[in-house]
């Protein structure tokens, strides 16, 4: 499959095949299959977002004891790791500088 350039906004969960006026955080070079994987990752993140919204209405549960937030956090790190893999050089450098591994 042929790779092409896409712009990605994690905050907005958007992937565009061409640079538009829409703001984006990252540029990736990917096949359609790789973009489908990223879309699925965003979909899973949205389900975790809903779970954290529901959990937020339980006032006695602390954040550090919150399985739903842990799932959301892990998925975000997974998404950034995948974007780093398929990103252009600038994207890879930026995500690497974010030090998401905690090391």
UniProtKB/TrEMBL annotation:
Origin superkingdom: Bacteria
Name of this chain's protein: Hydrolase
Organism per entry: Aureibacillus halotolerans
């Amino acid at each position: 499959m042929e790779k092409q350039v896409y712009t990605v906004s994690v905050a907005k969960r958007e992937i565009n095949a061409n640079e538009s006026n829409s703001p984006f955080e990252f540029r990736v070079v990917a096949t359609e299959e790789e973009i489908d994987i990223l879309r699925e990752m965003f979909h899973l993140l949205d389900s975790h977002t809903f779970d954290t919204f529901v959990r937020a209405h339980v006032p006695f549960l602390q954040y550090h004891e919150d399985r739903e937030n842990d799932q959301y956090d892990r998925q975000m790190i997974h998404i950034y790791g995948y974007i780093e893999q398929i990103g252009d050089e600038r994207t890879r450098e930026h995500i690497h500088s974010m030090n998401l591994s905690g090391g």
